[in-house]
Amino acid sequence: MRNILCLLLCLFALTAVAQKQKNLALTPPMGWNSWNKFACDVDEKLIRETADAMVASGMRDAGYQYIVIDDCWHGERDSLGFIHPDPKRFPSGMKALADYVHAKGLKFGIYSDAGWKTCGGRPGSRGREFQDAQTYASWGVDYLKYDWCNTEGLKAEGAYMTMRDALAASGRPIVLSICEWGDNQPWEWAQDVGHLWRTTGDIYNCWDCVYDHGTWKSWGVMQILDKQDGLRKYAGPGHWNDPDMMEVGNGMRTNEDRAHFAMWSMLAAPLIAGNDLRNMSRETREILTNKEVIAINQDSLGIQGFKYSDQDSLEVWFKPLANGDWAMCVLNRKSTPQQLSFDWSKHAVTDTIFNRQLETSQTRYKLRDVWAKKASGTTAKTLKAEVPAHDVLMLRLSSSKPAKKAAKS
Ligand code: GLA
């Protein structure tokens, strides 16, 4: 009898460990990550000032939560194998830093790697997964970005499952951000493993370019966007496609930053800012804190948007939203303005994967321009607009009264 009880308890414990920590990312995670702007130049002062700026800029109130330190925070492992932060850059230690971030009403994230070394050559978690997860939990970590450098001989699915189980065993709710660049099709296996998975290699701070590092490449915003093709069916509440952290505020033109933010919102992508929050222009702050655009990204249905049409680099995208609303985003990829003319009566917009239909013949939708923040007519009239170069027109469609009166009985 005692043996059976033990067996049942063990089985219960194992199932509990194997569970991804549910309900942690029911909408795409929002936050900031150090890598895109600061690379290895991270220290506790930067992190504290970034937390301050996230509050002062209104970003926290707009929904941003996580402050994530990417690569290079690490010092050495001690004689028992416990990892410590770089004592010069983080003299107060990670627990104190996490406490500071938490006191601001924010959450704290950190970075490691499934291999023996991180991409920046710091100690990785291979063979130390459970020990590291315990350490992170003791520091108060809420989010782990887990990279894929130096993983020779490892299988991605298994390696990420190990860290998932280690995080679960730590007893602390920790978001697991899978960063293996889409190499092993994580969308096919990661739904119960992590909360988000990178779909591509690294983003590069340009609208439309490829940067060749020799042995690997990084990708402009348009290249990353195109690589999302076919992946939307895998995303949903708790498990998101991650087209990488944003480059908004890192040097592209304002209209390009706006289009970048709009498209990441249409993709239900994690909104992880990658700029210096302490020194933002007004334009950058307004882009990152546009609550109407964020509401499209954070919509509770969690359906990733899709490209509906593409004519001469003027793309029309749609995203079904809760309560029968829709988002529409018209993206002009060209470097000259383009005219849009969209006659609703000539289009049948259908989401065949999530089974939704935009019924403009039955329902008249009100249009709201979420960048201009003003009403913009209804679907009763052909939508006409000039879309500037490398920019978007982004609308929220809300159903109003029926287009036709019901016939009298
Ligand atoms: C990889 C990741 C990046 C960043 C660096 C850090 O390239 O894809 O996002 O974390 O490593 O070294």
From TrEMBL:
SUPFAM superfamilies found in the cross-reference section: (Trans)glycosidases (SSF51445), Glycosyl hydrolase domain (SSF51011)
Keyword Transcription applies: no
Catalytic reaction(s) noted: Hydrolysis of terminal, non-reducing alpha-D-galactose residues in alpha-D-galactosides, including galactose oligosaccharides, galactomannans and galactolipids
Domain Alpha galactosidase C-terminal: 312-397
Signal sequence residues: 1-18
EC number: 3.2.1.22
Gene Ontology terms for molecular function: alpha-galactosidase activity
Membrane-crossing residue ranges in chain numbering: none
Keywords of the record: Disulfide bond, Glycosidase, Hydrolase, Signal
InterPro entries cross-referenced by the UniProt entry: Aldolase_TIM, GH, Glyco_hydro_27, Glyco_hydro_27/36_CS, Glyco_hydro_b, Melibiase_C
Protein's name in the database: Alpha-galactosidase
Taxonomy of the source species: Bacteria, Pseudomonadati, Bacteroidota, Cytophagia, Cytophagales
